[in-house]
């Protein structure tokens, strides 16, 4: 072995030891960290009003901090909440925008996000580091610069970077960087307002379950008498779960906040009790299990489950008995739900469940047949997305089928190596397909073949259409629990747009999956073709980062749903050139840049003023391109030149003349 290889191995081993020691140190500090004993300073002079709290529902994660109201303005002072060293700084158009991470003596952190700007010292340092590499997006560990702030010292100014409207996002993190409820510390807000219930959801959880006679999630609005809410009597059959849409408010602000504690009592027994003090970023997507994902996806409503869903590892649940998945004896049962904010303000909701005897499922006629092959370029039955799905069963619910038209279910029993079986089901019987014994089904509906598959945790699964045009790959850790899904594609007869579907939309994923689709000769510009998520309700397309290789269009996706395959050949549009001076005295040049389909690739775009290239910054909220150069001072007459590129490579180069 050469000396160079030996030195490299020693270096790798040393780095590994150093990293392991750092991890051990962080976990050791984690055990000793007590946020109740630390002294924090309120981080801004904008207000002492909370506009968001820990654990609130967001589109794909829990809210991780305390938001402070800044009255729709930028530029309020930001202070170090504790003595600390600047641990990390980041700048970018999305997420936290301009953000500072301070590390404190006990190993914990405070985070200050959506800032307008840092102090001059830190601004100059960050800009010099960005200028070295000519990059807009910046995210770097800064400990080596040994920049320290005392508690109460100015660190910057509030803003709206990353996500508007203007506000401060403030976090306390433990030594292993788990978000901690800031209200556990000495920080406080005025709150004498009790939580408010706005809805109850009842979910059917087994193949026998019905709510108000239907096999779908049912929502109820409450009647109210002071702090007490009543959801009345609900008819149910089989096993069901309860969830509530409930919110809190602090004094002086109209913003909706998360409740701190929830408790479910059924027949005078506590079955469930949750409290939100902290969580790990590694399981923040388990919000999809803590909430009723179907209602979050379709209605943007954050109904919090009053039972612990399979696969949920969140640390919120002080009591989560198996009986919280309610499988009650026939008769009348009472329930009580208690919601409490951090300051002890409490509201209660009541109701009754009228449980009926489960009906026996209708028998079905079975026959043995040869395998049914998947149809290529199949015509998609649009009601497939309205079927009732659970992990272990599926209820076809086709409104287009006449009562006398059967569904033909071909079952491939790969687990038991049996021949294919076709089951004849009449839709009017509301027959449930129990999928637990099989790896896949093939449903024939209106002469269209629809595949159903079983995906299991710990097992890598690859799905192909019979013609090998489409492939979907799931890794070992893709799902929280065994689930049933359907995957395929169809073409719109009117416009020829091909749409890939992976259903059900109401099932969350633990990790992403990869989809590949073979493009035919009709795609004249395959390199400018991509997958776009499609929302039937809003008719909106959103670009999904795609790649074209060896004839296949591929993408790594995080959510089930519908993805249209579209080609974008139009370059972005530029307009509205401006020159002006910011509040810090810095001159900037701006342009409006927009792209209707794939969106702007700001990392690949470039910006010159008077033949001096600067860093192109991008503000997605306003579709604004910003020119940054550390020595920029405009002339009386100026030439702005931009080379702007969208996410599939369409380019526009354009010049503008602007007077100061």
Question: What do you see in this structure?
Answer:
With 660 residues, the chain is mostly beta strands. The protein has 5 domains: 1-31; 50-184, Glucose Permease (Domain IIA) (Distorted Sandwich), CATH 2.70.70.10; 196-356, no CATH class; 365-567, Chondroitinase Ac, Chain A, domain 3, CATH 2.60.220; 573-659, Immunoglobulin-like, CATH 2.60.40. Helix content is 8%, strand content 42%. The chain is built from 4 helices and 48 strands. Strands 1, 2, 3, 4, 5, 6, 7, 8, 9, 10 and 11 form an 11-stranded antiparallel beta sheet that branches. Strand 34 (483-491) and strand 35 (498-503) form a beta hairpin. The longest helix is centred in the N-terminal third of the chain and has 30 residues, at 3-32. The protein is globular, with a radius of gyration of 28 Å. Residues 14-18, 364-381, 398-406 and 412-420 have low confidence and may be disordered.
Radius of gyration: 28 Å
Shape: globular
* Uncertain spans: 14-18, 364-381, 398-406, 412-420
Q: What's the CATH architecture name of the largest domain?
A: Sandwich
Number of strands: 48
Distance between the termini: 65 Å
How much of the residues is beta strand, in percent?
35-45%
Major sheet, described briefly? 11 strands, antiparallel
CATH class of the largest domain, named: Mainly Beta
**CATH topology assignment of the largest domain:** Chondroitinase Ac, Chain A, domain 3
Task: Label the structural class.
Answer: mainly beta
């Amino acid at each position: 072995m050469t000396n160079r290889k030996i030195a490299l191995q020693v270096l790798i081993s040393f780095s590994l030891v150093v990293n392991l020691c750092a991890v051990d140190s962080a976990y050791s500090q984690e055990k000793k960290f007590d946020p109740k004993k630390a002294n924090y300073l309120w981080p801004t002079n904008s207000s002492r009003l909370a506009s968001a709290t820990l654990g609130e529902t967001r589109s794909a994660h829990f809210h991780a901090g305390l938001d402070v109201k800044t009255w729709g303005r930028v530029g309020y002072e930001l202070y170090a909440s504790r003595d600390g060293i600047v641990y990390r700084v980041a700048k970018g158009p999305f997420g936290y925008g301009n953000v500072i991470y301070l590390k404190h003596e006990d190993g914990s952190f405070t985070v200050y996000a959506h800032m307008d700007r840092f102090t001059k010292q830190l601004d100059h340092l960050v800009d010099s580091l960005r200028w070295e590499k000519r990059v807009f997006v910046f995210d770097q560990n800064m400990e080596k610069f040994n920049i320290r702030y005392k508690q109460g010292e100015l660190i910057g100014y509030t803003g709206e970077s990353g996500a508007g409207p203007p506000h401060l996002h403030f976090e306390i993190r433990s030594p292993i960087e788990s978000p901690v409820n800031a209200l556990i510390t000495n920080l406080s807000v005025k709150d004498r307002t009790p939580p408010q219930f706005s809805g109850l959801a009842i979910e059917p959880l087994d193949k026998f379950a019905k709510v108000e006679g239907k096999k779908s999630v049912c929502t109820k609005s409450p009647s109210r008498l002071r702090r007490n809410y009543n959801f009345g009597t609900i008819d149910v059959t089989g096993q069901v779960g309860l969830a509530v849409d409930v919110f809190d408010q602090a004094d002086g602000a109209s913003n909706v906040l998360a409740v701190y504690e929830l408790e479910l009592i059924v027949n005078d027994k506590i079955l469930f009790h949750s409290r939100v003090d902290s969580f790990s970023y590694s399981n923040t997507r388990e919000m999809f299990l803590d909430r009723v994902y179907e209602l979050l996806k379709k209605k943007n409503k954050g109904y919090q489950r009053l039972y612990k869903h399979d696969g949920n590892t969140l640390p919120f649940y002080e009591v989560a008995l198996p009986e919280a998945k309610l499988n009650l004896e026939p008769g009348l049962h009472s329930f009580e739900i208690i919601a409490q904010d951090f300051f002890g303000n409490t509201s209660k909701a009541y109701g009754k469940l009228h449980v009926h005897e489960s009906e026996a499922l209708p028998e079905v006629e079975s026959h043995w047949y040869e395998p049914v092959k998947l149809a290529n370029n199949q015509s998609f039955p649009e009601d497939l997305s309205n079927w009732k799905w659970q992990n272990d069963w599926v209820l076809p619910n086709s409104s287009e089928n006449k009562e006398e038209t059967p569904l033909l279910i071909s079952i491939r029993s790969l687990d038991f190596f049996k021949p294919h079986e076709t089951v004849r089901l009449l839709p009017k019987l509301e027959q449930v397909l129990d999928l637990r014994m099989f790896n896949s089904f093939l449903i024939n509906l209106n002469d269209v073949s629809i595949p159903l598959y079983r995906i299991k945790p710990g097992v890598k699964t690859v799905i192909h259409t019979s013609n090998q045009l489409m492939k979907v790959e799931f890794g070992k850790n893709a799902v929280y629990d065994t689930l049933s899904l359907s995957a395929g594609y169809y073409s719109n007869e009117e416009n020829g747009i091909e749409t890939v579907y992976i259903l059900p939309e109401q099932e969350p994923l633990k990790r992403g999956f990869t989809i590949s689709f073979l493009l035919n000769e009709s795609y004249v510009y395959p390199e400018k073709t991509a997958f776009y998520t499609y929302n039937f309700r809003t008719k909106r397309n959103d670009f999904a980062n795609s790649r074209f290789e060896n004839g296949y269009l591929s993408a790594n996706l995080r959510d089930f749903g519908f993805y249209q395959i579209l080609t974008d050949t139009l370059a972005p549009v530029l307009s509205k050139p401006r020159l002006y001076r910011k509040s810090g005295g810095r001159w900037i040049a701006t342009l409006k840049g927009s792209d209707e389909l794939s969106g702007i690739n700001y990392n690949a775009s470039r910006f010159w003023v008077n033949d001096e290239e600067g860093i192109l910054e991008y503000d997605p909220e306003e579709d604004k391109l910003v020119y940054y150069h550390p020595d920029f001072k405009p002339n009386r007459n100026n030439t702005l030149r931009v080379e702007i590129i969208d996410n599939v490579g369409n380019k526009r180069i354009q010049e503008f003349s602007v007077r100061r």
